[in-house]
Amino acid sequence: MTLTFQVVLRTAPAQSALPQSVAACCVNAHGFSLHAGVRCTMNQRSKLERLRRYTTRPAIADERLARNKEGQVVLYQF
After folding, report:
1. How far is residue 61 CA from its own chain's centroid?
2. Which tens digits make up the pLDDT trace of 1-23?
3. Which single residue of 10, 21, 37, 56 could bond 25 by disulfide (Cβ 3.0 to 4.6 Å)?
4. According to the model, what pLDDT value does residue 78 have?
5. Which residues contact 25 (CB under 8 A, 6 or more apart)?
């Protein structure tokens, strides 16, 4: 027996309470957010590996997205 769950996707509200130094490295546009304040040096291998894994993670598979009766986009979680 396989259980599936549905999650209705919504846009996240903009974060307005960020400190000025952090806010300068962040942008939210068209449903995407980017935080460019993360960096590491050549000798920080574990931090570099975490950053690489985060930036190369796969996108949501099309097969997991659908529209429900109300027209909302739904993500199916298995």
Report:
1. 14
2. 556 667 776 766 655 555 666 66
3. 37
4. 67
5. 35, 36, 37
